[in-house]
Amino acid sequence: MRTYHHIINGQDVKGSSPHTIAVINPSTGETVGYMSLADQADVNAAVADAKAAFPSWADTPPAARAKILFRWRQLIDDHMDDLAHVISEEHGKSKAEAIGSISRGADVLEFACGIPSALKGEFSANVGRQVDSYSLRQPLGVVGAITPFNFPAMIPLWISSVAIACGNTVVLKPSERNPSAALLLAKLALKAGLPEGVLNVLNGAKEAVNGLLTHPDVKAISFVGQTSTAKYVQQTAIAHGKRVQAFGGAKNHALVMPDADIESTVDAILGAAYGSAGERCMAISVVVAVGEQTADLLIAQLSPKIKDLKIGAPTNEGAEMGPLITQDHLAKVKAYIDQGVKEGPTLVVDGRLQKVSSEGYFLSGCLFDKVTSNMSIYQDEIFGPVLCVVRVTSYEEGLTLINKHPYANGVAIFTRDGDSARDFCHRIDVGMVGINVPIPVPVGFHSFGGWKNSIFADHGMHGMEGVRFFTQLKTITSRWSSGSRQGVEFSLPTVE
Ligand code: NAD
């Protein structure tokens, strides 16, 4: 049985709170260990140590910071199996999916290794006589990172690597469902030479989050989770004078045109809808089929493949889809399916019927056809292996439907026609768009972020948007006049 403490100032710390929570293996329902739940005193201790570490880290040359990040990157590769193992155990992802997600996190760490170049700033000579102007991007101070269960390594890496590279110190509060990956990442960062106190991991739940959101020494909050939590986090952090970015939930559509290559589209949709049991913020959960024939073909080809999905624990070689995260979440997803059946669409594949010989929280793939926009299975994020097909008669009808949805994280169009693809990119009101790419998660040196109810932020995650979020701009105007006298000026200086 494991015991999960915090990592504060480089030390394994039990904390002052007597409260713990069980960490469960969702493939078996068994308790893996007990995690400390931080209280306000623990938050105060972590923030105080992060604050103490800040001046020296902020003053460390970016190239020297990058050297440590390069070593951290290498250590992540060296410990890929260990990281994948704890993710599979506490989340239920297959080993391949776990490794893929760690690699996408390390991708952003690689971007962060190039921080000297990203922080270069701007310089203009002679903006006035003997006057030069230049800009600096300086770190904010202590940053709180609050992350969800569904990417236990990737999202902590997305946030912390850029924040640290920019010269900030971080208190990371990972999901209470699966804390091991964040703890291991922090240990590897210390091994790479990251000074104590620069990356702290505070385990906990709501009390720890509230402690960070209200603490006067926390200058910024980067949050990822459900939309309801994201709104709360944004409002509370703003009320306490912090810079905040809060990324929320999603309902991602795939618009399939009649000219799409149906076989490769079916493969793409299958992986994007059911990979990681649909527990991805960029999962495709709605297919919008243009024309009856397109819809019929998709249903005919998707159905047998969904029925054939291999469901099982990550220890089971060949399992394509693992369990849902908790018993409660399984019950919630099943309740959506029950409600969907009542609302009248056709349940073409009923994943509730496939039995898996385990005590884990398994549900096989479900497929609804003839879904309409008023149904709860269309409106709400289900976050499970449930795909809805909506039939429309034209491209315009599909575009309008997608643009009306309150979530706008990712979207994809499947077509062979460049005109439709180009028009779609320009007119779709969604933050991340794929053309024949089902999960258009931007690479580390571009930036991630949806629109509408999927984001409560002015800046996206990672890439240059991340650098802008984790730094503040300072612009310097300097005069070196070699002794020549300017005289008194009472008017605002202007350029001659
Ligand atoms: P969640 O909102 O339940 O939890 C996220 C974090 O907030 C956790 O660390 C948790 O401890 C904390 N938290 C939860 N409830 C809280 C409360 N009432 N007050 C204060 N803190 C609270 O999210 P989750 O279930 O862990 O993650 C799944 C959600 O995250 C999905 O909605 C998914 O779409 C979303 N997500 C979004 C993105 C994105 O980039 N937009 C990426 C991944 C996941």
Structural account:
The chain is of the alpha/beta class and 496 residues long. It folds into 2 domains: 2-248 and 454-476, Aldehyde Dehydrogenase, Chain A, domain 1, CATH 3.40.605.10; 252-435, Aldehyde Dehydrogenase, Chain A, domain 2 (3-Layer(aba) Sandwich). Helices cover 39% and strands 23% of the residues. It contains 16 helices and 23 strands. The protein has helices at residues 40-59, 62-78, 80-91, 95-113, 115-118, 154-165, 180-191, 206-214, 227-239, 262-274, 292-307, 327-343, 376-379, 395-404, 418-427, 463-469; strands spanning 2-4, 6-8, 11-13, 20-25, 30-36, 123-128, 131-139, 142-146, 169-173, 199-201, 218-224, 243-247, 252-256, 284-290, 346-349, 366-369, 386-392, 407-408, 410-414, 432-435, 451-452, 455-456, 471-479. It has a 7-stranded mixed sheet with strand order 15-16-17-14-13-19-20, sandwiched between helices. A 6-stranded mixed sheet has the order 10-9-8-11-12-22, sandwiched between helices. Helix 15 links the parallel strand 19 and strand 20 (432-435). Helix 4 (95-113) runs parallel beside helix 6 (154-165) and helix 8 (206-214) packs parallel to helix 9 (227-239). The chain starts with a strand and ends in a 17-residue tail after the last strand. 51% of the residues are buried. Bound molecules: nicotinamide-adenine-dinucleotide. Nicotinamide-adenine-dinucleotide binds at residues 146-151, 173, 175-176, 205-206, 209, 224-226, 229, 232, 247-250, 281, 381, 383, 409, 450, 454.
